[in-house]
Amino acid sequence: MSLTQQQDDKEFTRSPSHFADRITADGSSPWPVEAGRYRLVVSRACPWAGRALIVRRLLGLEDAISVGVVDPIQDERSWRFTLDADDRDPVLGIRFLSEAYAKAEPDYDGGVSVPAIVDVPSGRLVTNDYQRITLDLSTEWTAHHRPGAPDLYPERLRDEIDAVNAEVFRDVNNGVYMAGFSRDQEAYEGHVHRLFERLDALSERLEDRRYLVGDTITEADIRLFVTLVRFDAVYHGHFKCNRRKLTELPVLWAYARDLFQTPGFGDTVDFDHIKRHYYYVHHEINPARIVAVGPDPRGWLTPHGREELGGRPFGDGTPPGPVPAAERVPDLG
């Protein structure tokens, strides 16, 4: 997650991914697919990093790509490893993710974002291209997928998945930020209206189908889920996306609960990290840095009824196994 604000036109602008090298299986890049070589650095607060956590888990890449989790609260040096002993990542040996950025480009002075994939032997950042990372986990790392791993980016559906993803990114994933960081009333209202128009269109699409594209979970569902799971907790109030709550959108609320209760989704979500990050770090929106108490997350565990629509969550595959002990998130109680 990396944010910039254009002050002159009062519009929020998301920084592009500056480091966009790819890890490939065919030798077409300097970075070969190699189990154990790379470390995925994430914040559980960040929706873009949340995508990578879900895909990694669904595909069973835990043993092939280790994960480092940063503190949800950034300081002036950005993401920090204060959740680990001695405030250092135990694999990379660094205190701040910016150190891996500096190894890749010593003069770099831009934002430090997650997800980030770091080359362990050199300590150098390989990529922070959140739009590409999950697609490459699906298509380049197939030799290390678990038996029964689902096909999250099936070739025959890629054009449709890409089209859905483009609309969801523009109006929903990024739309909530466009609204939340608007500095102009008219611009803010326009972004909120487009957001809810898209949510209504998605509700209509999902009314009689269990998943966005085809009859199995795909990359499209993962990209929508990471925004929906944060919606009532932070985007509704903190970002003023408050025409309606997710819980007031019956189709999307049931759809999101269906995914949350699917292994690989809810077991990667940490609501404490999500709320503390947004309410504390965005001090220009919430200068008192008061973290909201609600909503009660246990609603995510209530029945959703979406099984009646059919569909096969993992296609011809199987659910992922138990979450590794070191990666478990707090129980919803």
Largest sheet: 4 strands, mixed
Q: Class of the largest domain in CATH?
A: Mainly Alpha
Order of helices and strands: EEEEEHEHEEHHHHHHH
What is the fold named in CATH at topology level of the largest domain? Answer: Glutathione S-transferase Yfyf (Class Pi), Chain A, domain 2
Number of strands: 8
Please work out how many helical segments DSSP would assign: 9
Class by SSE composition: alpha/beta
Number of domains: 2
Assembly state of the chains shown: single chain
Give the neighbour order of strands across the main sheet. 6-5-7-8
Mean pLDDT score, rounded? 95
> How does CATH name the architecture of the largest domain?
Up-down Bundle
Range of helix content = 25-40%
Distance separating the two termini = 29 Å
List the SSEs and their pairings.
Blueprint: E1 3-6, E2 11-14, E3 23-24, E4 31-32, E5 38-42, H1 47-59, E6 66-69, H2 98-104, E7 116-119, E8 124-127, H3 130-139, H4 158-173, H5 175-180, H6 185-206, H7 219-235, H8 250-260, H9 271-281
Parallel strand pairs: 3-4, 5-6
Antiparallel strand pairs: 1-2, 5-7, 7-8
Q: What labels would you give this structure?
A:
333 residues; alpha/beta; Glutaredoxin; Glutathione S-transferase Yfyf (Class Pi), Chain A, domain 2; 2 domains; four-stranded mixed beta sheet; two-stranded antiparallel ribbon; 9 helices; 8 strands; disordered N terminus
Please give a structural write-up:
There is one protein chain. The chain is of the alpha/beta class and 333 residues long. The chain has 2 domains: 3-144, Glutaredoxin, CATH 3.40.30; 158-327, Up-down Bundle (Glutathione S-transferase Yfyf (Class Pi), Chain A, domain 2), CATH 1.20.1050.10. It is built from 9 helices and 8 strands. The protein has helices spanning 47-59, 98-104, 130-139, 158-173, 175-180, 185-206, 219-235, 250-260, 271-281; strands at 3-6, 11-14, 23-24, 31-32, 38-42, 66-69, 116-119, 124-127. A hairpin with a 4-residue loop joins strand 7 (116-119) and strand 8. The protein is globular, with a radius of gyration of 19 Å. The model is unreliable at 2-8 (pLDDT under 50). This is Glutathione S-transferase C-terminal domain-containing protein. InterPro entries: Glutathione-S-Trfase_C-like (IPR010987), Glutathione-S-Trfase_C_sf (IPR036282), Glutathione_S-Trfase (IPR040079), GST_Omega-like_C (IPR047047), GST_Omega/GSH (IPR016639), Thioredoxin-like_sf (IPR036249).
